[in-house]
TrEMBL record:
The keyword Ribosomal protein does not apply. One of its GO terms (molecular function) is protein serine/threonine phosphatase activity. This is Protein phosphatase. It comes from Peptoniphilus koenoeneniae. The keyword Glycosyltransferase does not apply. The lineage of its organism: Bacteria, Bacillati, Bacillota, Tissierellia, Tissierellales.
Length: 241
């Protein structure tokens, strides 16, 4: 398995509120894009990721069901930790974060998502977005108020309807995919708002993973880099049985 991860503050923001983790000991991948006032966004994303990592490192995983339970319980705990911090420290009031998490167990890519960071699956058949953005624009799409074309340029397309740490309780949908012959991408919207899906696919399928990562970051910056840019690339083609 090959892994490439990168983060960049971008060309507009003064600080990087994205936070990610690629484990040295576990096939665990987490990416968070924080939101809030001064220091709050970066505090939310880092707190959530570190809380989840600690939970995974302290538990024994024997089967896929253990992974799913641990993802659910660790997200619930991270949500509580961020929520409590936001409500006990004035400067962190209202903070929250997106969260994309994945764990590879045997031949399964097990994942969950909160907010508008995304997880993609890529193979020779194409690129597929495995997650659905928790945004106001998607709500408008669901009720038929706007079209797909209108959604792409909507002024409120980044307004979240769900984020970790903003509500006392948080439930997530945990799913899984077969990994054979596939690549996966976890990314913040700083990448997807700057680089089209078809361009992401072409770069990842036509280049070595490290080169593709460099090109993706360069393209996101060249196209404006208006937000923090963070992504994790995973090539599972070398995973053993």
């Amino acid at each position: 398995m090959k892994i490439v991860s990168k983060t960049n503050v971008g060309k507009v923001r003064e600080k990087n509120e994205d936070y990610y983790h690629v484990s040295e000991n576990l096939p665990l991948f987490i990416l968070a894009d924080g939101m809030g006032g001064h220091l709050a966004g970066e505090t939310a994303s880092a707190t959530a990721v570190k809380t989840i990592v600690h939970e995974f490192e302290s538990k024994n995983i024997k089967e896929a069901a253990d992974v799913k339970t641990l993802i659910e319980e660790s997200i619930e705990l991270a949500n509580k930790v961020v929520f409590d911090l936001a409500n006990s420290v004035e400067k962190y009031k209202g903070m929250g974060t997106t969260l994309s998490i994945a764990y590879i167990f045997e031949k399964q890519f097990i994942y969950a998502n909160v907010g508008d960071s995304r997880i993609y699956e890529l193979d020779k058949e194409g690129i597929r977005k495995l997650t659905r953005d928790d945004t106001y624009v998607n709500y408008l799409l669901d009720i038929g108020e706007i079209t797909e074309e209108e959604a792409r340029v909507h002024p409120n397309k980044n307004v979240l309807t769900l984020a970790l740490g903003t509500e006392k309780k948080l439930k997530v949908n945990i799913q899984s995919r077969d990994i054979e012959g596939k690549k996966f991408l976890l990314c913040s919207d700083g990448l997807t708002n700057m680089v089209k899906e078809e361009d992401i696919y072409k770069l990842l399928m036509e280049n070595e993973l490290e080169d593709a990562g460099n090109m993706l970051m360069e393209k996101a910056l060249d196209n404006g880099g208006v937000d923090n840019i963070t992504f994790i690339l995973i090539d599972t083609s070398r995973c053993e049985s």
